[in-house]
Amino acid sequence: MGNDGLRTRLLALLLAVSGAQAQAPQPPAADLIARGRYLTLAGDCGACHTAPGAALDFGGGYPLATPVGVIYSTNISSDKIRGIGGWSDEAFVRAVREGVSQDGHLLYPAMPYDAYAKLKREDVLAIKAYLMSLPPAVSSVPSTELSFPFNQRWGLTVWRWLHLARGELRDESAQTPAWNRGRYLVEALAHCGTCHTPRTFTYGMDNAKAFGGGDLGAWVAFNITPDRNAGIGTWSRTELASYLKSGCIKGKASAAGGMAEAIEQSLQYLTETDRLAIAEYIGSLAAVRDNRQTRPRDRWGTASSTVYALRAGRLSSATGAGLYNSHCASCHGGEGEGNGDGEGFPSLFHHTTTGAYDSRNVVAVILTGVSRRGQTTTVMMPAFAEWLEDEQVAALSNFVSAQFGHPSAATITPARVKALREALRAPSPAAIEDGRLEETPNGS
């Protein structure tokens, strides 16, 4: 009887201990949090889920300009009320891969869950572990107010049925480990197709033209397939890997806009092995041709002697050449040849932006400038939106395209500049004079 009583007491003690352990789960291991941090950077989560000027990361409230209106990103910090602090693992995985929030409402596909659907479950949970290790961002997010019919979230059920392909991306046994890793990064985690793949009329990715270039409104996300003229078929794999780190290839390209942001906040932090894996996979893509691009984008334009010739006379600020001399030549050179190593002051001829048949990016750079912070260098170009009128921006853009780039792109009108200025939320000289300052997308 005594032994039975002792066994009973020991069993009760074991059950009590195991119950206490179940109620107090151990914190995630440091290596899981570190892996989650790397995956969060690779997924560029902070770019959209951190508002300009926020004291803490991942508090949401970033305004995402979409074709249907402005959508504000959600708080994904560890805050238990406004963020994901009270979410289960299942709820977080479902939100990331299926676009369904914890309370069951459907998320707008400004969150690229059509790409994240391919993520491995363990990677999603590693991201969650990292986010939960950070201080909570106690910040409220503006509500997204879209016009009818886009404010009817039930319509997202149809969108998801059309465009959401569920299932983790599996390795292809016939391919190399680097190719498989690159595919996972490009198609899932880094969600490159979200910008670089054109959209259908229902705003789903047009996979028949995958990575063939996307229309982002005021910007163009260029074709990144191996097509020599429209894409990046003239780039070597080491050049592409270097570009993903620095945002620059001398005599070829320099990143601005959303691409500069992706490099600054995400791609530069990838390992060299991962950047080369991306380059290997992109190099294997089917080339998407565009007959409007009749030679490689980095093979257009020549040096100009116009500015030097005109300096002997009177340069009118109303002409493109005069505007170039006043605002651009000191950095980009009188002949457009650039200065230094080409990273901060790139050449304007033999450049993938000026050599494109669509000069929207030229206009966008003139209006909003360039801001690209690397781990060791910072590249800055001032925004001229508040200094140049629409007519001046059009004249300058057309001069740059005609002289240094694709001559067919020299068709920008003042009305077109006005529309792009509004899309970029860039201030105008008149707005500055009247005291009507308009916020630009990067909060400057």
Automatic annotation (TrEMBL):
Its main location: membrane. It comes from the Bacteria. It is found in: Cell membrane. It comes from Sodalis praecaptivus. Residues 31-135, 177-286, 315-404 form the Cytochrome c domain. Heme c 2 binds at residues 192, 195-196. PANTHER family: ALCOHOL DEHYDROGENASE CYTOCHROME C SUBUNIT, BLL4482 PROTEIN-RELATED. InterPro entries: Cyt_c-like_dom, Cyt_c-like_dom_sf, Cytochrome_c-type_DH, Membr-bd_ADH_cyt_c. Its cofactor is heme c. The lineage of its organism: Bacteria, Pseudomonadati, Pseudomonadota, Gammaproteobacteria, Enterobacterales. Heme c 3 binds at residues 328, 331-332. GO terms for cellular component: plasma membrane. The keyword Membrane applies. The keyword Membrane applies. Pfam families: Cytochrom_C. One of its GO terms (molecular function) is heme binding. Heme c 1 binds at residues 45, 48-49. This is Gluconate 2-dehydrogenase. Residues 1-22 form the signal peptide.
